[in-house]
Amino acid sequence: MSTLYRDRTPRSLNFASGGTPGLPLDKYIIVRQPNCAKTLRAARRSSTVASLAVTALLAAVPEFAIGQSLQTDSSAAARAGAIAHAQKMRRLFPDIGGDTQATPPVIPQLEIDPDPSGAIATFQPNGPTITAKNAFFQNLGTNGRTCGTCHQSGDGWSLSAQHAHDRFEANPNDPLFRLVDGATCPSDDVSTYQAKRKAYRLLRSKGLIRIGLPIPSDGLEFQIIGVDDPYGCNTNSTTGLTGSTTGTVSVYRRPLPAANLGFLSTIMWDGREPNLFSQAVDATLGHAEGTVKPTPLQQQQIVTFEGCTQALTPDLCANTPAGAGVFTAQIFDDTGRYLFGNGANGGPISLSKQLARFFIGVNDPLGQNPTGV
Q1: At what angle do helices 276-286 and 296-306 cross, to 10 degrees?
Q2: Regarding beta strands 29-32 and 110-115, do their DSSP bridges make them parallel or antiparallel, or are they unpaired?
Q3: Is pLDDT at 368 greater than 80 in this prediction?
Q4: pTM to 2 decimal places
Q5: How far is residue 189's CA from residue 326's CA, in Å, rounded to a whole number?
Q6: Are residues 316 and 269 in the same domain?
Q7: Cα–Cα dist 112/75, whole Å
Q8: What is the SS3 string spanning 141-203?
Q9: In the Cβ-directed half-sphere of 332, how many Cα atoms lie within 13 Å?
Q10: Is 22 within the bounds of a domain?
Q11: On the CB side of 148, how many CA atoms lie within 13 Å of its CA?
């Protein structure tokens, strides 16, 4: 359930800035409450979070970054192989049925969601996003998913194991649960509810997605001589290895946050993506099982919502509007209370203002700071 809150600012707090942006707050702020706020603590937290939304938004004037370096593409073969594997799995082990991703009409400028230790917030310096006009929230593939399927605001634009578990319990046909990468192996049996629970157990219990990566054919410096494969995916020649130096290796990892991306110095866990535009294409063809690439306009819409890696790929970010992107951070702690204002610099609004001063090496402790500061 979602509830809009207007001006319920706690008058006892000092704002970090005296000015107000003059925004229609009912269009810019949304606070999501748990479906089952049954405890007194949960009820108090929802009330606190409601007041927090207005206070936080009144504290900010965003600043913007200038990029400095361009990452080269050295892993095209790995990316192409991963996509080819995903497309092959779609043909061999198609999903039967399944729902499509539900999407809210608007992602507000400031959204605050309760979490286990307080509240996490999302902030967009350039204002709210109309989801119907942005490809990040559109079904570009064949399995009902959008980027928002695995990148949720309440999880810091990533995916938590608890919420993956909750989504399965609420609806095992949720588009998060697809054979291509949600199951321990695409060949898993999902013919019954109990079979689905078993197939999707890593996703339900740990929030992990399967990635099938080909063993490099050129310049290989290793071979696989032993495999511990409890899920039967790596040792199956159809879905996994075909020899000690050939085939596909399945690895399991949690989706990375699609927020705060302007601070990245590499993209993906293994750095295989050269830029966010390439990543948007590969995610559509792989995770969404798309049959065509997103258009250049759709790629730009996705990157504009996420925020471009200005410091990493300044040339490619030239068409991304200044101030674009989404920022996320903890904004309230049950013990520490308000993490912004009164000299504190927590929360996504303060974080967004740090991007203007960011460059690769800014916090390098080994003398690699290019400015010497």
Answers
A1: 110
A2: parallel
A3: no
A4: 0.82
A5: 38
A6: yes
A7: 37
A8: CCCCCCHHHHCEHHHCCECCHHHHHHHHHHCCCCCCCCCCCCCCCCCCCCCCHHHHHHHCHHH
A9: 23
A10: yes
A11: 21
